[in-house]
Amino acid sequence: MRAQDTRLLKLRHLHTGERIDVVYYRDGDYDPAALEKLNHFLRDHRDGSVREIDPAVLDYLHDLCERLGMTKRVSIVSGYRSPKTNALLRSKSSGVAKRSLHMQGKALDIRIPDHRVKSVAKAAIKPRRGGGGSYSRSNFVHIDSGRVRSWGA
User: Fold this and answer.
1) Domain ranges of the chain
2) By percentage, how much of the chain surpasses pLDDT 90?
3) What is the pLDDT of residues 123-138, one digit of tens each?
4) Is residue 1 pLDDT above 60, yes or no?
């Protein structure tokens, strides 16, 4: 990444129906107002709680979209999750981590239009910049700014 680049995310939240197009980084700096908008957009849709989203996971998503040549909106399945929401989801599925990085604002579950889950997951894990994996049955890819690891791809 160059210091002069501009980073734009075009997102659609599957649970709220909201859409956002936001330049969150320009000329070597993150835009605090844009990051606040993203924090709100990626809030826990179940209880409305907001947490700061790690810019590293936003950059991960941005770079993935560039690698895939994305021009369409990325669908957000899950951004921030409160501990209460995470516990609720854990009680319904074995695929939800007890210490999920979603609770730290460091993870996103996404769908990329016109791309298969497995191919998105492979593109996500190739640069080895954090966690990434596919959930084919649920039709989404997980990316996070935690330690490098992968699954399902």
Assistant:
1) 6-151
2) 80
3) 999 988 899 999 888 8
4) no
| pTM, rounded to two decimals | 0.92
Cβ atoms within 10 Å, residue 34: 19
Which residue, 11, 7, 8, 6, is CA-closest to 110?
11
Are 18 and 38 contacting, i.e. CB atoms less than 8 angstroms apart?
Answer: no
CATH of domain 6-151: 3.30.1380.10
* Tokens at 29, concatenated: 């700096």
**Mutual orientation of helices 32-41 and 55-67 as an angle, nearest 10°?**
80
Neighbours of 106 (CB within 10 A): 22
Distances (CA, A) of 119 to 52, 63, 91, 111, 126: 29, 15, 29, 11, 11
Rg (alpha carbons) of the chain, rounded to whole number? 14
